[in-house]
C-alpha cells in the first residue's frame, strides 16, 4: 500500500500535503490509470490521520479529475495527459456590461459560466494585493508588466506549452490581445502584408490596416492555412493558430509547421504570429507543443490571454517576443506604459504561484469535457437536429461548427432565433461557401449551463 511521510509537510495542512503527493504520483505514472486507491479508513490508519483528512484530499482530487469514484467500490486513478509542473513555494516579492439584452442562450459568448470561477480565491488574492504595503504597487511599473506576473507566466508556458527557453524579459503584458496586436503592428512597421487563415473577417485585419499594413485571407485545407499559397504572394507575416484552428478545432501537423518555418527562414523580415487562444482546452490526447517552442531561428511571436480561462473583465493578455523584436519594441514603443493595473497583475501572479490557476483549469477541463459530450449526445439524439445537422468537432476548444440542411435564409433563421432569445454567428469564410442548401453555425458552448443543455438545443432545433 502507498504511504507518505506527513512529517515533511512543513506548514501545509495535512489534507493539502496528501493531495499534492497523490497528484504528483498520478502525474508521474507511479499510480497507474484505473488503479484502485486505498479505502479512506485503511489509508487513514496507515498515515496516522483522521478519516476526514483522507476524505478531504480524495474529494479535492476527484473534483479536479485526478481520481474518479465507482459506487460501492471506492476511488480509482483517472487516465490523464499531464505534464508535471514545477511549483515554486517561495514567497513573491511584489516589485460596464457591454449589452443590456439578456439572451436565454448566446452562442457567441466566449467565456465560461461565472459559476465555475473560484471567486473566493480570486478575492483573497485581490485583497492581499490591495493590502500589500510594498510601495512598488503604487508606482509606475515596467512597460513590460510586473516581473512577478511575467515570472509566473514563464513558468506556466514551460510546464504546459513546452516553452522552456522563454524568460520573463521576453514577455510583454497588456490589456487585451487587441492592444498587444496594435503594438506589434507598430514595431513591424507600415506597408507590410499579413496573411491569416480564411475563417471569416478578422478584427486583427482592421488593426493592421489602421497601422498602414495590408491583409490577405488565405484559403485553408485539412492541415490549416495553405503554405503553398503564402509562398506565391508578397506576405511578410503569417498569423497562425496551430493548436486550434477556429472554428474547426484542428491542429496543424508537423509537416505543415516545418513548411512554415522554412518559409519564415527564407526571408530576413518574415515572421510567424502564433495565436494560442483556447489551446488550453484540449479533450483529446496531447498533440504538438507550441510553434514557439519548436522555433530554432527566433521567428515566432506568441500571443495568449487570460480572458477565456479566467473572467472576461480580467483584461490581461501577453505577448512573447523573439530577441530581435524585443529590442525593436524597446527602441520604438516602450514609451507606452503597461496598460494593466499593478494590483490585478500582482493578484494574478499570486493566483498562479499558489496553484489556484492550475486547479481552476483542471476543473474547467473536467466540466467542459462532460458538457461537450452531453451536447454532442443531445444533438445526435435530437428528433429535430439529428436528421439535418452535422457537427465538425476535433476535440479542441470550446466551440464547434454545425452544418444544418435547411431552405430557410440566414435572415429568417436569425429572426426566428431572436424570437426564441437565441443568438449565434454564421460561419462565412471568404473563399469557401457552405454546402448547397445548408447554413453553418458556430456553436460556442463555454457559457452553457449543464442543466440547460436539453432546453437550449431543443429550442435551437425548433428554429428549423
Q: Care to describe what's here?
A:
Residues 12-80 form the HTH gntR-type domain. The structure is a single chain. By secondary structure, the protein is of the alpha/beta class. It folds into three domains: 6-77, Arc Repressor Mutant, subunit A (Orthogonal Bundle), CATH 1.10.10; 121-356, Aspartate Aminotransferase, domain 2 (3-Layer(aba) Sandwich); 359-463, Aspartate Aminotransferase, domain 1. The protein is built from 15 helices and 17 strands. Helix 5 (147-160) runs parallel beside helix 12 and helix 6 (177-188) runs parallel beside helix 7 (203-210). The longest helix has 26 residues, at 356-381. The termini are far apart. The relative contact order is 0.13.
Biggest sheet layout: 7 strands, mixed
Instruction: Give the spatial strand order of the biggest sheet.
Output: 4-12-11-10-9-5-6
Number of helices: 15
Rg over CA atoms: 24 Å
Class by helix and strand content? alpha/beta
**Strand percentage, roughly?**
5-15%
CATH topology of the largest domain: Aspartate Aminotransferase, domain 2
Overall 3D shape: globular
Shape-level CATH architecture of the largest domain: 3-Layer(aba) Sandwich
Q: Give the mean pLDDT.
A: 89
CATH superfamily of the largest domain: Type I PLP-dependent aspartate aminotransferase-like (Major domain)
Indicate the low-confidence ranges by residue numbers: none
Got a strand count?
17
- CATH class category label of the largest domain: Alpha Beta
Distance between the termini: 58 Å
Helix residue percentage: 25-40%
Count of individual domains? 3
Amino acid at each position: 500500500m502507498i504511504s507518505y511521510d506527513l512529517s515533511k509537510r512543513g506548514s501545509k495542512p495535512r489534507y493539502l500535503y496528501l493531495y499534492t503527493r497523490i497528484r504528483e504520483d498520478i502525474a508521474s505514472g507511479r499510480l497507474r490509470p484505473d488503479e484502485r486507491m486505498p479505502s479512506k479508513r485503511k489509508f487513514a490508519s496507515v498515515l496516522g490521520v483522521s478519516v476526514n483528512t483522507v476524505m478531504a484530499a480524495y474529494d479535492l482530487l476527484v473534483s479536479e479529475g485526478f481520481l474518479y469514484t465507482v459506487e460501492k467500490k471506492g476511488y480509482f486513478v483517472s487516465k490523464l495527459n499531464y505534464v508535471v509542473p514545477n511549483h515554486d513555494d517561495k514567497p513573491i516579492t511584489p516589485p460596464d456590461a457591454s449589452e443590456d439584452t439578456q439572451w436565454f442562450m448566446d452562442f457567441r459568448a466566449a467565456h465560461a459560466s461565472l459559476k465555475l470561477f473560484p471567486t473566493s480565491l480570486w478575492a483573497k488574492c485581490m485583497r492581499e494585493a490591495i493590502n500589500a504595503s510594498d510601495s512598488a504597487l503604487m508606482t509606475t511599473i515596467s512597460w513590460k508588466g510586473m516581473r512577478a506576473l511575467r515570472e509566473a507566466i514563464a513558468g506556466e508556458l514551460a510546464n504546459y506549452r513546452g516553452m522552456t527557453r522563454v524568460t520573463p524579459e521576453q514577455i510583454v503584458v497588456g490589456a487585451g490581445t487587441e492592444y498587444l496586436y496594435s503594438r506589434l503592428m507598430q514595431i513591424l512597421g507600415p506597408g507590410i502584408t499579413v496573411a491569416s487563415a480564411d475563417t471569416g473577417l478578422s478584427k486583427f485585419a482592421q488593426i493592421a490596416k489602421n497601422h498602414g499594413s495590408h491583409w490577405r485571407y488565405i484559403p485553408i485545407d485539412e492541415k490549416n492555412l495553405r503554405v503553398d499559397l503564402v509562398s506565391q504572394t508578397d506576405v511578410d507575416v503569417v498569423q497562425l493558430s496551430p493548436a486550434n484552428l477556429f472554428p474547426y478545432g484542428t491542429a496543424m501537423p508537423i509537416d505543415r509547421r516545418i513548411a512554415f518555418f522554412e518559409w519564415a527562414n527564407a526571408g530576413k523580415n518574415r515572421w510567424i504570429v502564433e495565436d494560442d487562444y483556447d489551446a488550453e482546452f484540449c479533450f483529446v490526447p496531447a498533440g504538438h507543443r507550441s510553434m514557439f517552442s519548436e522555433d530554432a531561428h527566433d521567428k515566432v511571436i506568441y500571443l495568449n490571454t487570460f480572458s477565456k480561462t479566467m473572467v472576461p473583465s480580467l483584461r490581461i493578455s501577453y505577448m512573447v517576443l523573439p530577441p530581435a523584436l524585443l529590442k525593436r519594441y524597446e527602441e520604438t514603443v516602450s514609451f507606452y506604459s503597461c496598460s494593466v493595473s499593478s494590483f490585478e497583475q500582482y493578484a494574478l501572479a499570486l493566483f498562479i504561484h499558489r496553484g489556484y490557476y492550475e486547479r481552476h483549469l483542471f476543473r474547467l477541463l473536467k466540466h467542459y469535457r462532460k458538457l461537450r459530450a452531453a451536447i454532442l449526445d443531445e444533438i445526435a439524439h435530437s428528433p429535430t437536429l439529428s436528421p439535418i445537422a452535422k457537427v465538425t468537432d476535433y476535440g479542441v476548444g470550446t466551440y464547434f461548427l454545425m452544418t444544418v440542411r435547411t431552405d430557410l435564409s440566414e435572415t429568417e433563421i436569425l429572426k426566428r432565433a431572436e424570437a426564441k432569445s437565441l443568438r449565434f454567428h454564421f460561419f462565412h469564410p471568404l473563399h469557401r461557401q457552405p454546402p448547397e442548401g445548408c447554413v453553418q453555425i458556430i456553436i460556442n458552448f463555454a457559457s452553457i449551463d449543464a442543466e440547460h443543455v436539453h432546453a437550449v438545443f431543443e429550442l435551437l432545433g425548433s428554429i428549423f
